[in-house]
DNA sequence: GCCGTTTTCGGCCCGACTGTTTTCAGTCG
């Protein structure tokens, strides 16, 4: 039983209640409590078993006495009577039906009660037999929509990783901006916030000819199918662009891969939504479609407390007597008090400008000024890179030249250690030769420092893959877990704490080994790992590859709050991997990282001094 | 089911779009 299990239990309760048609506010309450738990790093199962559990749990936002009781029951017994009662009433096969595009709990409820549908198979049968078409409010058009939704679900259209979504969004935005009538075009949504995976892409545009822009959008070459299309909004499915080493590997081994993708059509499909707004409302729309649900609710509530109301057109005076949407009111009442830029909106509500990445309702409303979060341009060193000596594609000199071209003052060569035989990990004598080769490369290039390092495996019991004598010869040691990534939480914690406490280790690389949407990785007590890292001056890495983004955002935030130092590294294998820095920085920003706590931003002297302290 | 410098009861973010309707329910973001 972990926090994730508590989240799953609350989500399941909420879904069952929806299907039964229970009070929507109870559904929302359970869902919000689940969101809260997702953002917590403390082990709530341990809290639930411990003293004063109810009191401690109800201190969390959105958790009251009733949900606290369920959490305690789950923590202590692993079961929840209410959940079991719900399970007895509702067929479990109905839950996946809630994911069908364009259909929700009310529809599923009708299918279940009126047509005997209990899962995907019986739904398909009911569609084929005409049973669905005979239900009230189910015309042929609705049935066609349902068939399309079933088709799409079968193809596994789901979430997409940040790096894949970003590339697609950049292309869409560039094509829209190239049109004469388009004044502004930006991607918003969870992708702009930098979530590690996204369920769709939102594009906000202001245009002098909305209808033409919307038409152009729905006929872009990447469009696979059009879901809906109007003058002010349109939704399509697009095919992602492929190409990286991870994607090729994925296409080969993913049994759920879309067959059309395997034929070279590109990557997975993704829903892309377009909104066209008048230019004077662009900022309001960006705020509205960027903030998380919780951020937007908080913002709205704050406005209401001040006597205003916020929608996607701007901030307006709240008028309870008039139920016309404020932007449609006549005269001065219909004019927004702030709407043009995002900064205008926040300033009007007496808030500093809040960077997109932290619009999650995790404390940003208490900020007195805009924090100076880390930016890509602050990064001046790469401390995790591979060469042809192990599994990289560049020589030492090629790597150093590429890093220098990026404006870096330092590049660390950190090839794999001996246990990584499949990645041509270096045996001790090969590593000693490699160190000599790095020293000699340094003599051939000026303007950048080449550090001799290693990405040393953290073995399952926490020991390292080289002995201390050899590690001491290296300028920088990145210690990373690569195998036994399914070991239990207690062992994982001991493993990482031991590595972070090692006097010769500078950085813990991709600490959990998770792969976004693919592998959970280790699930250690992260607070214990952070405490060990802090105590021994060891940096925790944010691996910038969009497949990893490990540490993840919530762990970064906990590490920063605890006073830990952070490294952001591209884990370079090919020159293009340097371009992934933006994703690492975005993840850092989500964790409220300022430049001073990130070792990669430090001037050469300070960085080299920090490394030498461990020698 | 949660929550409170206008509330311990009565609210809970809100508008657009779609399809099925003849005034609105459901879904989405």
Describe this structure in words.
The protein is an alpha/beta fold. Helix content is 42%, strand content 13%. It contains 25 helices and 16 strands. The strands form 4 sheets. It has a 7-stranded parallel β-sheet with strand order 10-11-12-13-14-15-16. A 5-stranded mixed β-sheet has the order 2-4-7-6-5, sandwiched between helices. It starts with a helix and ends with a helix. It binds one DNA strand of 29 nucleotides through residues 23-30, 32-33, 61-67, 102-107, 136-139, 141-142, 145, 189, 200, 202, 228, 230, 232-233, 235, 273, 275, 288-289, 293, 296-297, 299-301, 304-305, 309-313, 325, 327.
List keywords for this structure.
globular; seven-stranded parallel β-sheet; alpha/beta; five-stranded mixed β-sheet; DNA-binding; 615 residues
Strand proportion: 5-15%
Name the overall outline.
globular
Low-pLDDT stretches are: 251-265
Sheet of most strands: 7 strands, parallel
- The number of strands is 16
The average pLDDT value, as a whole number, equals 89
Structural class: alpha/beta
- Give the distance, in angstroms, between the N- and C-terminal Cα atoms: 41 Å
Main β-sheet, spatial strand arrangement: 10-11-12-13-14-15-16
Helix content: 40-55%
Determine the oligomeric state from the structure. single chain
Number of helices: 25
Radius of gyration: 26 Å
Task: Give a topology summary.
Blueprint: H1 3-20, H2 24-38, H3 44-49, H4 53-58, H5 65-77, H6 81-89, H7 105-115, H8 120-128, H9 140-154, E1 160-161, H10 162-177, E2 182-187, H11 189-193, E3 197-198, E4 200-207, H12 210-218, E5 223-229, E6 233-239, H13 245-253, H14 259-265, E7 269-277, H15 282-290, H16 293-305, E8 308-311, E9 314-317, H17 342-348, E10 381-382, H18 396-405, E11 410-416, H19 428-444, E12 449-457, H20 468-471, E13 476-480, H21 489-500, E14 507-508, H22 526-535, E15 539-543, H23 553-562, E16 566-569, H24 581-590, H25 604-612
Parallel strand pairs: 4-7, 10-11, 11-12, 12-13, 13-14, 14-15, 15-16
Antiparallel strand pairs: 1-3, 2-4, 5-6, 6-7, 8-9
The chain binds one DNA strand of 29 nucleotides through helix 2, helix 5, helix 7, helix 9 and helix 16.
């Amino acid at each position: 039983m972990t926090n994730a299990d508590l989240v799953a239990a609350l989500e399941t309760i909420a879904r069952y209640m929806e299907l039964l048609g229970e009070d929507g506010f109870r559904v929302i309450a359970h869902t919000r409590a689940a969101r809260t738990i997702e953002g917590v790093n403390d082990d709530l199962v341990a809290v639930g078993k411990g003293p004063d559990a109810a009191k401690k749990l109800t201190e969390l936002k959105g958790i009251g006495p009733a949900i606290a009781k369920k959490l305690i029951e789950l923590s202590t017994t692993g079961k929840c009577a209410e959940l079991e009662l719900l399970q007895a009433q509702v067929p479990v096969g109905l839950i996946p039906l809630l994911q069908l595009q364009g259909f929700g709990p009310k529809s599923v409820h009708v299918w279940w009660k009126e047509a005997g549908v209990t899962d995907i198979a019986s739904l398909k049968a009911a569609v084929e037999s005409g049973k669905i078409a005979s239900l009230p409010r189910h015309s042929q058009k609705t049935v066609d929509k349902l068939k399309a939704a079933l088709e799409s679900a079968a193809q596994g259209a789901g979430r997409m990783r940040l790096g894949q979504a970003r590339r697609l969004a950049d292309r869409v935005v560039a094509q829209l901006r190239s049109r004469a009538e388009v004044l502004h075009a930006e991607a918003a949504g969870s992708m702009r916030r930098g979530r590690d995976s996204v369920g769709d892409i939102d594009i906000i545009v202001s245009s002098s000819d909305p209808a033409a822009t919307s038409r152009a959008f729905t006929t872009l070459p990447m469009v696979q199918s059009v879901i809906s299309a109007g003058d002010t909004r349109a939704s399509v499915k697009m095919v992602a662009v492929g190409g990286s080493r991870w994607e090729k590997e994925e296409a080969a081994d993913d049994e759920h891969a879309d067959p059309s993708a395997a034929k070279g059509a590109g990557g997975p499909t993704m829903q892309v939504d377009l909104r066209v707004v008048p230019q004077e409302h662009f900022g309001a729309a960006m705020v509205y479609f960027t903030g998380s649900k919780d951020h937007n609710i908080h913002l709205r509530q704050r406005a209401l407390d001040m006597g205003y109301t916020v929608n996607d057109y701007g901030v307006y005076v709240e008028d309870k007597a008039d139920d016309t949407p404020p932007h449609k009111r006549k005269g001065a009442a219909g004019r927004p008090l702030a709407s043009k830029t995002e900064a205008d909106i926040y300033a009007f509500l007496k808030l500093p400008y809040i960077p997109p990445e932290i619009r999650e309702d995790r404390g940003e409303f208490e900020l007195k000024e805009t924090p100076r979060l880390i930016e890509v341009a602050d990064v001046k060193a790469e401390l995790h890179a591979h060469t042809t000596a192990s599994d990289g594609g560049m020589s030492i000199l090629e790597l150093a030249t590429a890093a220098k071209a990026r404006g870096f003052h330092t590049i660390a060569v950190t090839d794999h250690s001996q246990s990584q035989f499949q990645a041509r990990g270096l045996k001790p004598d090969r590593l000693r030769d490699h160190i000599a080769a790095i020293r000699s490369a340094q003599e051939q290039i000026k303007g950048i420092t080449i550090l001799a390092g290693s990405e040393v495996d953290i073995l399952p019991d926490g020991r390292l893959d080289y002995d201390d004598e050899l590690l001491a010869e290296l300028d920088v040691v990145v210690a990373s877990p690569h195998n036994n990534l399914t070991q239990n939480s207690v062992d994982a914690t001991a493993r990482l704490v031991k590595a972070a406490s090692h006097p010769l280790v500078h950085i813990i690389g991709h600490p959990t080994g998770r792969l976004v949407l693919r592998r959970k990785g280790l699930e250690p007590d992260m607070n214990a790992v952070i405490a060990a890292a802090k105590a021994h001056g060891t940096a925790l890495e944010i691996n910038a590859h969009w497949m990893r983004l490990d540490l993840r955002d919530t762990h970064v935030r906990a590490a920063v709050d605890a006073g830990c130092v952070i490294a952001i590294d591209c884990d370079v294998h090919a020159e293009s991997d340097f371009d992934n820095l933006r994703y690492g920085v975005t993840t850092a920003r989500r964790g409220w990282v300022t430049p001073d706590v990130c070792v990669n931003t430090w001037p050469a002297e300070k960085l080299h001094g920090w490394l030498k302290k461990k020698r």
